[in-house]
């Protein structure tokens, strides 16, 4: 597993250094309780100024890892270092080094957007006037000024998420830890998020650790990505580097109108190796084979039964599956 | 396509650990939490404040059927008990529910990842919950005093009773909310506390059996009720009023201390 590939050069000092992090928790009660190893010896290094992603399906252990990085959870064993500070020994220092956007907004829900941002800034140590003006600037930057006086609870999911992201940005921090920041956002809001991240990185060298299971987002915004599966990092590289693992293959998606025409020999043979989700069949294969398959399904009875088909170059999802991801895909 | 086009700035000094941003100080962050919680109340809690006040007014009307108007210890405790009940409803019951919900839904993570002292979060929320009980308490006390023919001149003492009883009850409410293992249990504890404040505060003491009186002595709201009830007397015993308020203050310090400890425990790393 390579830890070095990426845009930030090797000599860039590390921002986050995690070594052999292990965390288990108990699930269930009494005799039926089972021990689940949410993080099983995770090691990774995020360099300063990188946008680094943790990609993996639900339950892979991404959030458990992030909670240990932010000082919310103590690991069973292993070390976490943020900008040279030992966070396992001094978890309270994390709050003075990073801005964290968690998945929940209940602490801010009944505040107006402006007050949520301003209060968060004050609790991050800013004075009243500074918190107010910084909050106003961030809301302007993210296009939230028009809804600044509306309570978060009355906003749509995407707007609420953007307002929480705004609160995360008030009070500069060298590291931003964002747990699925763009969930529910429309493309305009997503772009505002990535523009704001980009600006902070260019102006202040801000490092971003991003948790996501959105493959397209991971491919477009990340410098490097660690693929997390069953509590372990199964790969760590640039998105391009990971996709090179499946270079040469293509993905063919077939959607049938109704039942698949298994009477056609090519289709019957395909069923053995395709991943079938309802009427959608997905197969990863070489371009030559894909061409033959497309020819077979776009003629005769197979074509009559075909609703849609797409032929695509590999994505991070294909890389994840190739790496042995055990959850049948990232997007849930 | 790469949306992020700016190259990372990597010319920062690298020797030793990075400097830590300053932590938020106790009083400014307490003020910020207090202000945010008050604003929150305007959005979400006004209907509940009406409920709290109408509940107490309803109890006054009900008790008027069994207690004669005029200077009697029963009339004084009914009016004082109904007034302090508004404080119990909001500061104990609603605050227990608020912290219970915050803990159950992961909302505490927001505060736990900010460099803010635990006491600021707990005291700020407690102070806000206690202070928005004031209008309801004053309305209940004024209506009660008129209904039961008691003097209105001493209502100013509520300015001491509400914060002190509020501190004691809010501390208890916050501790319940933060210590309860599940959100439903936090809700149940808050409601039980409020029921106790209702029954033990409003019912005239003359007819209560001894074990119930012991229980009544254990409840912090009792001392707020007693202090307020004494001021309706024609010649109030101010030393006893002060002593009762002193108990409220002492319990307040203790319960807010426990709540602060419970907060630290709830966000334990």
Give the helices and strands, then pairings.
The complex is a heterodimer of chains A (332) and B (269).
Chain A: E1 14-27, E2 34-47, E3 51-55, H1 62-69, E4 77-82, E5 85-86, E6 98-101, H2 113-123, H3 128-141, H4 157-169, E7 175-179, H5 187-204, E8 207-212, H6 215-221, E9 224-229, E10 232-237, H7 239-244, E11 250-256, H8 265-273, E12 275-277, E13 280-285, H9 287-297, H10 300-305, E14 306-312, H11 316-322
Parallel strand pairs in A: 3-8, 3-9, 6-7, 7-8
Antiparallel strand pairs in A: 1-2, 1-4, 4-5, 9-10, 11-13, 11-14, 12-13
Helix pairs in contact in A: 2-3, 2-4
Chain B: H1 26-44, H2 46-64, H3 73-105, H4 108-112, H5 118-131, H6 134-147, H7 158-179, H8 183-202, H9 210-218, H10 220-230, H11 238-266
Helix pairs in contact in B: 1-5, 2-3, 2-6, 3-5, 3-6, 3-7, 3-8, 3-10, 5-7, 5-11, 7-8, 7-10, 7-11, 8-9, 10-11
- Class by alpha and beta content of chain B: mainly alpha
- Per DSSP E runs of 2 or more residues, the count of β-strands of chain B stands at 0
Residue runs with pLDDT of under 50 for 5 or more positions of chain B:
none
Looking at the overall shape, the CATH architecture of the domain at 14-97 and 173-244 in chain A is 3-Layer(aba) Sandwich
Question: Helix amount of chain B, in percent?
Answer: over 70%
Please state the average pLDDT score of chain B.
Answer: 88
Order of helices and strands of chain A: EEEHEEEHHHEHEHEEHEHEEHHEH
What is the terminal-to-terminal distance of chain B?
A: 40 Å
Number of strands of chain A: 14
Question: Helices and strands of chain A: which structural class?
Answer: alpha/beta
**Poorly predicted tracts of residues of chain A:** 1-6
Largest sheet of chain A: 6 strands, mixed
> Helical proportion of chain A?
25-40%
Q: Report on the biggest sheet of chain B.
A: none
Helix-strand sequence of chain B: HHHHHHHHHHH
């Amino acid at each position: 597993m390579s830890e070095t590939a990426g845009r930030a050069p090797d000599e860039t000092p590390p921002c986050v250094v995690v070594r052999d992090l292990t965390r288990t928790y108990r699930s269930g009660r009494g005799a039926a309780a089972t021990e689940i190893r949410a993080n099983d010896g995770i090691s990774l290094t995020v360099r300063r100024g990188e946008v680094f992603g943790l990609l993996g399906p639900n339950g892979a252990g991404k959030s458990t890892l992030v909670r240990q990085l932010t000082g919310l959870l103590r690991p069973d064993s292993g070390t976490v270092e943020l900008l040279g500070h030992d966070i396992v020994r001094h978890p309270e220092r994390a709050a003075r080094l990073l801005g964290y956007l968690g998945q929940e907004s209940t602490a801010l829900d009944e505040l107006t957007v402006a007050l949520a941002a301003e209060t968060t800034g004050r609790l991050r140590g800013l004075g009243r006037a500074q918190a107010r003006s910084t909050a106003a600037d961030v809301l302007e930057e993210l296009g939230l000024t028009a809804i600044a006086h509306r309570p978060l609870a009355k906003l749509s999911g995407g707007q609420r998420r953007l307002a929480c992201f705004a609160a995360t940005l008030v009070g500069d921090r060298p590291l931003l830890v964002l747990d699925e920041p763009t969930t529910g956002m429309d493309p305009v809001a997503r772009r505002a998020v990535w523009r704001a991240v980009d600006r902070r990185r260019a102006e202040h060298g801000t490092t971003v650790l991003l948790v996501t299971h959105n493959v397209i987002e991971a491919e477009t915004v990340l410098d490097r990505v660690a693929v997390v599966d069953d509590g372990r990092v199964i790969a760590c590289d640039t998105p391009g580097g990971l996709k090179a693992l499946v270079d040469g293959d293509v993905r063919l998606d077939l959607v049938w109108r109704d039942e698949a025409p298994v009477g056609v020999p090519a289709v019957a043979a395909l069923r053995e190796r395709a991943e079938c989700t309802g009427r959608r069949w997905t197969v990863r294969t070489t371009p030559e084979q894909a061409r033959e398959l497309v020819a077979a399904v776009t003629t005769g009875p197979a074509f009559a039964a075909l609703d849609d088909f797409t032929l695509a170059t590999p994505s991070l999802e294909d890389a994840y599956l190739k790496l042995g991801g055990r959850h049948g895909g990232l997007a849930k | 396509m790469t949306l992020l086009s700016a190259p990372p700035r990597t010319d920062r000094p690298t020797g030793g650990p990075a400097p830590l941003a300053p932590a938020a100080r106790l009083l400014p962050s307490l003020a910020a939490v207090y202000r945010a919680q008050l604003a929150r109340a305007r959005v979400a809690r006004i209907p509940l404040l009406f409920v709290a006040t109408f509940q107490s007014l309803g109890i006054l009307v009900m008790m008027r059927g069994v207690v004669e108007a005029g200077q009697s210890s029963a009339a004084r405790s009914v009016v004082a008990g109904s007034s302090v009940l508004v404080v119990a409803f909001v500061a104990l019951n609603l605050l227990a529910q608020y912290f219970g919900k915050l803990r159950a839904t992961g909302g505490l993570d927001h505060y736990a990842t900010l460099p803010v002292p635990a006491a600021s979060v707990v005291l700020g929320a407690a102070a806000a919950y206690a202070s928005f009980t004031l209008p309801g308490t004053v309305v209940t006390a004024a209506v009660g005093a008129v209904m039961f023919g008691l003097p209105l001149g001493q209502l100013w003492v509520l300015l001491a009773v509400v914060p002190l009883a509020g501190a004691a009850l809010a501390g208890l409410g916050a501790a319940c909310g933060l210590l309860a293992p599940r959100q439903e249990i936090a809700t149940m504890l808050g409601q039980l506390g409020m029921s106790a404040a209702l029954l033990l505060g409003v019912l005239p003491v003359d007819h209560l059996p001894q074990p119930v009186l012991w229980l009544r002595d254990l409840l912090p709201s009792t001392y707020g009720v007693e202090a307020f009830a004494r001021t309706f007397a024609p010649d109030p015993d101010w030393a006893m009023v002060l002593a009762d308020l002193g108990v409220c203050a002492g319990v307040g310090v203790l319960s807010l201390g426990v709540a602060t400890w419970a907060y630290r425990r709830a966000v334990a790393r």
